[in-house]
Please model this.
Amino acid sequence: MRCPDQIIKWMHDYLDGDITPDDEKKLREHLQHCPECSHHFNSLKKTIALVQHTAPFAPSANFTANVMAKLPKEKKRIRFGRWLQNHPFITAASLFVALTIASLLTTWNKEQQFSVSTRENVIIRDHTVIVPKGKTVDGDIVVRNGTIKIEGRVNGNVTVIHGEKYLASAGHVTGKVEEINEVFDWIWYNVKSVVKDVFE
Amino acid sequence: MDIFVKNRIKAIQKGDQNAYAEIVELYKDKVYRLCYRMLGNRHEAEDAAQEAFIRAYVNINTYNPTMNFSSWLYRIATNLSIDKLRKKKPDIYLDEEVSGTEGLTMYSQLPSKEASPEDAVESLELQETVQKAIEKLPEKYRSVIVLKYINDLSLQEISEILDLPIGTVKTRIHRGREALRKHLGHL
Model:
């Protein structure tokens, strides 16, 4: 019996799962009558079964560890990033500190204007604040970008930021006298005042 | 592709090596099996599979997420195995008939395997027969057969992995099946 040429192709289409229903019917009919093709078809199916039947074989137990050991070193930045992810509190705290310092630095550079915290019993001439002889200032004095001359009496603290202080021999300050001319002093001063505000 | 793999890959692309260990764990068996069937021995398969994972890691930024990650990984493993096959082409084939003898091949010259329970031997022999039949396939048929029947992939996935038109994949599978049938069909 002469078999149609496309029989073998149909077999493979069938095995691939994309045979048309029409071809499948013709294939089945042919296989019923042709022992030769039927044998061919069965041996193909058996072959597939044999190839698919695989003993459970797996890579060595330390396969993953071996792969990981051979990978190129990861970047330091990444390791640092993962460390931050694992320590959220430290990350938040350091971020807070960094932002605070940055904002203080900008205010330090920006504030170039002369200012004084009190106007009572003082004389202001250009950028100089004078506490005259015989006068008494009650409370703290803060002078920015200016000079203070104390000839009288101050009942409180005197702070000079970006400036100088002159204390005459007759002058008297009951509290502390402070001059702030460096960025770090400025930061320290701010930190102190924040802490004082918090605790008062 | 499931979300887990997607997320892991994003982490790896950012450089997180720990995430890669989970990917290796997930795919090592399939990649190893592919390499084993392509190369035919445990030692080489282990080396090739490891190298495939290392290559995938190094080139993770060239991975295109529109493709299945497994397909991409299998492509690397298949190409690597084919490279290794080309390099190791042996001078003599063990199943060549030894000249001057009749039906005596180099296999009969090899020392027999150590004794083990009978059924284990039988299944082991069958395994070896199947493996030899696969090894006799030219590499272009071998790769499609391995992907189809060992890794259980669809024709579509195979065409993606090997970057071949689906018609070519089909033709190669048909020829590969016929070639295997000659060695295994009579068993």
